[in-house]
Amino acid sequence: MLRSIFSLLLFVSFSVYSQGSDSKAGKTLPAATIKDTLPALPVKSDRYGLRVGVDVYRLGRSLFDEGYRGIELVGDYRLTKKIYAAAELGNLKYTVDDTQVNFTTNGSYIKIGFDYNAYQNWLDMENMIYAGVRYGFSNFSQKLNSYRVYQNSTLDDTNINIIPSNYLDEVTVQADKDFSGLSAHWVELVGGAKAELFDNLFLGVSVRINVLITDKKPADFDNLFIPGFNRTYDGNFGVGLNYTLSYFIPLYKKQASKTEVKKEVQK
Amino acid sequence: MKRLIGSILLLLLISCYLWSCEKDDLCPSTTPTTPSLIIRFYNTNNHASLKTVTDMKVFMEDRDTITLGSRDSIALPLRTDGTSTRWGIMYNRGTTSVVNDIDYLEFKYTTREEYVSRACGYKVLFTLNNDTNSNPNPVITDNSAESHLWIDEYEVLNTNIENENAAHVKIYF
User: With contacts defined as CB-CB under 8 Å, which chain A residues touch B7?
Assistant: First the structure.
């Protein structure tokens, strides 16, 4: 619980920060200035290239959470003015201590898909507010460390002063069972933002809703957590987030087409 | 644009909500978990008619005695960490004054566990050992201070204790 509050705080602090940088950048070039200088506007060009980075949330959590060791590399490649090909590659070993079961999930995952940038940038700014989709695949193993036998051994005493409680002691079994060769396929809906902090250095955040297509379940156990997909809920859905620091490697520039420039002049 | 920011906010809200309810799920009482052994009591003289055990009390040795009251059926939990469970059943056979009579029933079985769900974890199912002349199951013994059993006969209806839908054992007295 503490952990989730912490992650939420981290998350909120970032969203505030990124908004701040956006508005600051906006202020330096108010709309009026642009209109005044339009005739002298340099030929507008967009930079195309590869952006690679790492998820700092997973890195950070690996440092302070003993049962968590995860890394996620992210990358995107600009295809057109608004569309980016995007991918995430990760590895995770995570021990989940639930009330009834304690298990360790270990495995790797890959997610590939597209992002659509809906943010109208000023001049040569390259910030993003985007929506996207991913196809995700994970190969992993589960280790059932221990479980509690769920037994309701309450006997109804006619004496109303006796509070009904379990008659037998709770039994915890050290199972130490390995289930390997498991896999899962899913689809993610992504929403997020990327802001340029310094030259070519971007801070990004994204939230995801995952829908499980199919998974190979262990015999007499379940995939309660899947690397990349995260915790599984009833109805085959899950949620995720990442929090990335990435570097843009410019490869080439493309001039905005004449019609596009014209359109902007008309505006 | 506004719609997009709105939908991202919504996505954020939903995920925060789901994140925060991570440990809140409880095992619903309607989910079948580890079953108890169900015994119904019948009349020795008329095997078809249920008979009420007056002032029934049940206990395991070295544990509390549970006063169940007068009833014709009980659900006794079995130990999941062993292969036998011994229950004492006390019956008030007196008609005018209280005459308590204790008989012990020892059930022998094998166990196997089965996965239920995240919230319920695992349940244990039991299979009663076969009841033979040389190895009766359950073993019925008298309290050492008493000279006769109040239980006359028993009948095992189902050796597989996998649910609590029907009686597993009939006892005649």
Answer: 131, 191
User: Shortest CA distance to A206 belongs to which of A104, A39, A74, A22?
Assistant: A74
pLDDT in tens, B86-107: 999 998 888 788 888 899 999 9
Q: Residue A87 carries which side chain, given as an amino acid letter?
A: A
Q: Which chain A residues are within 8 Å of B66, Cβ to Cβ?
A: 155-157, 167
Residue A3 parent element (H or E): helix A2-28
> Which stretch of DSSP H or E encloses residue B84?
strand B84-92
ipTM of the complex: 0.82
Burial status of residue B105 (CB atoms within 10 A of its CB: 0-12, 13-18, 19 or more): buried
C-alpha span between B143 and B164 (Å, rounded): 29
Write out chain B residues lying below 8 Å of A158, CB-based: 67-69
Alpha-carbon dihedral of residues A18, A228, B31, B16, nearest 10 degrees? Answer: 0
Q: What is the pTM of this model?
A: 0.78
Q: Does B13 touch chain A (CB under 8 A)?
A: no
- SS3 letters for A136-165? EEEEEEEEEEEEEECECCECCCCCCCCCCC
Distance between CA B37 and CA B59 in Å, rounded? 14
State whether residue B52 is helix, strand or coil: coil
Q: Which CATH number fits domain A2-141+174-266: 3.60.10.10, 3.30.830.10, 2.60.40.10, 2.40.160.20?
A: 2.40.160.20
